[in-house]
Write a structure and sequence with these properties.
The complex is a heterodimer of chains A (286) and B (127). Chain A has two domains: 93 residues, no CATH class; 153 residues. Helices cover 78% and strands 0% of the residues of chain A. Chain B has one domain: Response regulator (Rossmann fold, 3-Layer(aba) Sandwich). Chain B starts with 5 loop residues before the first strand and ends with a helix. Classes of the chains: A mainly alpha (286), B alpha/beta (127).
Chain lengths: 286, 127
């Protein structure tokens, strides 16, 4: 019989704590050997902090959250859950700083703008490419229109030649009459071919909407990266000694996660094509 | 009868060009462009337009805000607004319909879809 998820989660938390404790013990042993008393003091603080993390987690493990849930089930008011999360976060911040992980966070934070810039670069370059294609489509359309107009004019003139050749069989060779007929047919068909080319050009033009669609997805990812960066900055601020906090820039950017729906087919709250939009609007009387 | 004047509102210039070219192909070559709702509203208040084709997700003023501004202005509320957007959420479509949008097209769309919606709205306005 499978164990319940709480028990598995508790085990996982216990294992993680065991792992953390081992790491901390190793670090402590390494630091405690011949180093200066200051280092030893720091390690001691680290150990204390880790112990606080362990205590807090152990509290959760022993039924802190679980008992809150159980209390709620019993109709007893729940414990101040968010306050405890806040305490846990504070302890984690302290541990990060004392273990030196704040430098790792800073490293990750430094790379996020780079990732964001790369995505913005992709959006910009693909946008420029789409614009180039649209410019080329416009030029090709103009060429096609000119070709079609010229062919129409020549067709009329060659029809007159064809009529003359037909009425003056003695002055036109069979090969000449055939050539006139084929030339007329060619000029007659140019207009239709130009229209067909225009349809293809329209398809090429429509395909450039990828820039709008992918651009919005990229914008969404960039916003996510910005939000993550913001959270990391906050974490860094919280784990930075007060006297150094002025150095950390904590600009806040409001997230806006709008944009095209990805994997819409598997979601019930979105529509995946125009006919579904029309059906929905029809149900609303539009 | 004068040719109807369109206002195409989208923050992506590529999309504005596509819609503009499509409108031209289906017989409407009189069109202006705006990159967001705020610019569009300013243009609408400063000059006469007969039809608005608007995206939803835009900076400064989004498509819903633009739609609400148009429908709450006595001088503008008669202008039909066709939403052309990548937003495919049902709640957005319902909101657009309830806010007074004349139609809703999801991207990517075809020339035939745009033509059908524009003609249908034009006929409704003329009736």
């Amino acid at each position: 019989m499978a164990r319940d998820s709480n028990a598995l989660a508790a085990d996982a938390a216990g294992n993680a704590l065991d792992g953390d404790a081992t790491q901390i013990r190793k670090k402590r042993r390494r630091a405690a050997r011949p180093v200066a008393a200051a280092t030893a003091a720091k390690v001691s603080a680290t150990s204390d902090t880790a112990a606080r993390v362990a205590d807090t987690n152990q509290c959760e493990h022993d039924g802190g959250v679980g008992s809150a849930s159980a209390d709620a089930n019993d109709g007893v008011p729940p414990e101040p859950f968010y306050h405890r999360i806040g305490q846990l976060t504070r302890t984690l911040h302290d541990a990060l700083r004392e273990l030196g992980y704040d430098r790792d966070l800073a490293h990750v934070k430094e790379h996020l703008p780079d990732a964001r810039d790369r995505l913005s670069y992709i959006a910009r370059v693909t946008g420029e490419a789409a614009e180039k294609v649209l410019n080329a489509v416009d030029r090709a359309r103009n060429v096609q229109q000119g070709l079609s107009a010229q062919a129409g004019g020549l067709h009329k003139r060659w029809q007159a030649v064809a009529a003359f050749a037909h009425g003056a069989a003695d002055r036109a060779t069979p090969a000449g009459r055939t050539l006139v007929a084929e030339t007329c047919a060619f000029f007659s068909g140019v207009g239709g071919q130009a229209d067909a080319t225009n349809t293809i050009l329209t398809d090429i033009m429509m395909a450039q909407d990828f820039h709008d669609l992918t651009g919005q997805v990229i914008r969404r990812v960039v916003t996510l990266a910005t939000t993550m960066e913001e959270q990391l900055v906050r974490l860094l601020i919280d784990s930075t000694p007060p006297e150094q906090r002025k150095k950390v820039d904590g600009a806040i950017i409001e997230p806006s996660l709008n944009g095209p729906v990805v994997n819409g087919e598997s979601r019930s709250e979105v529509v995946s094509n125009q006919s579904q939009v029309d059906d929905l609007l029809a149900t609303l009387g539009f | 009868m004068a040719e109807p004047r369109f206002l195409i509102v989208d923050d992506f210039s590529t999309m504005r060009r596509i819609v503009r070219n499509l409108l031209k192909e289906i017989g409407f070559s009189n069109a202006e462009e705006a990159e967001d709702g705020a610019v569009a509203l300013s243009m609408l208040k400063g000059s006469k337009f007969d039809f608005v084709v608007s995206d939803i997700n835009m900076p400064n003023m989004n498509g819903f805000e633009l739609l609400n501004n148009i429908k709450s202005d006595d001088n503008l509320k008669a202008i039909p607004v066709l939403m052309v957007t990548a937003e495919a959420k049902k709640e957005d479509i319902v909101l657009a319909a309830k806010s007074g949008a004349a139609g809703y097209i999801v991207k990517p769309f075809t020339k035939a879809t745009l033509e059908e919606k524009v003609q249908k709205i034009m006929q409704k306005v003329a009736a």
